[in-house]
Specification:
alpha/beta, Rossmann fold, 2 domains, eight-stranded mixed sheet, four-stranded antiparallel sheet, 11 helices, 12 strands, 32% helix, 20% strand, binds adenosine-5'-triphosphate, binds magnesium ion
Length: 330
Amino acid sequence: MNRSAHPVVRIDRLSKIYRPKRTLGSSHSSHPVIALNQVSLDIERGEIFGLVGGSGSGKTTLGRLLVKLEKSDGGKIYLSENDTTRIRGQALKAFRAKVQMIFQDPYQSLNPQLTIFDTVSEPLIIHKTSSRSTRIKKVRKVLTTVGFSPAEDYFSRYPHELSGGQRQRVAIARAIVLNPEFIVADEPTSMLDATNSFQIFNILSDLRKKQRVTFLFITHSLAAANFLCDRIGVIYHGNLVEKGPARQIIRHPAHPYTKALLDALPSYCQDPACTFHNTLLESPRDLPGSSHYCPFFTLCREADPYQCASETPNMIHLSATHSAACFKAG
Ligand SMILES: Nc1ncnc2c1ncn2[C@@H]1O[C@H](COP(=O)(O)OP(=O)(O)OP(=O)(O)O)[C@@H](O)[C@H]1O
Ligand SMILES: [Mg+2]
């Protein structure tokens, strides 16, 4: 892929902290959760960027910040080089037409009281973009794009009359009906079987190829990201720890956490050529006393007991396209 000088999305040191809500009668105070810690990345036009990490690592938080379902606590978000971090009013409405999100659960993301036609045409009405006859044509077109044929047969159905895979395809149709520039797809196949997942992957891939839609594809699976994505970013406890071309990350992982994710892939370890990296400690070590340390220190078999316990690693460039936040990388 040609790396353009102007990425569609640029995130600069984005942070999000969830502070505990005070509740009446609560005797103990819980700690704030640093869901994202100064995450920076660029997503190029027409690429599928995979964000990979374990449960609770901050993937959905990043997606929700990008589509402005939540506010950040620091850092900047740029869409086509325009600072959109704090936009409001008309600018926010225009932004919402260009940026969409597909959620993990197709059973909860569609309004059960709307027909498929109303579900998919609603964004066109909200953004007052077309007459009823044009809306019918557009809904027919996007439903066909996501594999409903003939599309009209599904217009008057309700979400409960569809399978999970069909619902997720309706959610994609709704997301693309305004021709967005950028879509966040948050684990869109995690509730689907292999055949439906494969179909969704193909739809996203086609949208990228034919309509140059740019995607952030969120997943806990390095295998799924490797299958679909051009580049991958690996996130651990709110910290982006490695990013680079998908093939590079899979073949030459640099961060011990990425290596641990690869070790956990059954298909990867069945390959006789695969290296078992064995970077994960069986039982975590204690947190160091200092206020700066590597976020993976407690689980990392390769950690230096002095440096990794007293300094936070920055991203190191291993090549023009590959970087990792580990003192030992490279
Ligand atoms: N609204 C919220 N209020 C408080 N804490 C939250 C909120 N949303 C997320 N968190 C916390 O932020 C952290 C990151 O959550 P997030 O949902 O982004 O993780 P995730 O990587 O998407 O996980 P999963 O793979 O399970 O979906 C978690 O510790 C979570 O408990
Ligand atoms: Mg999530």
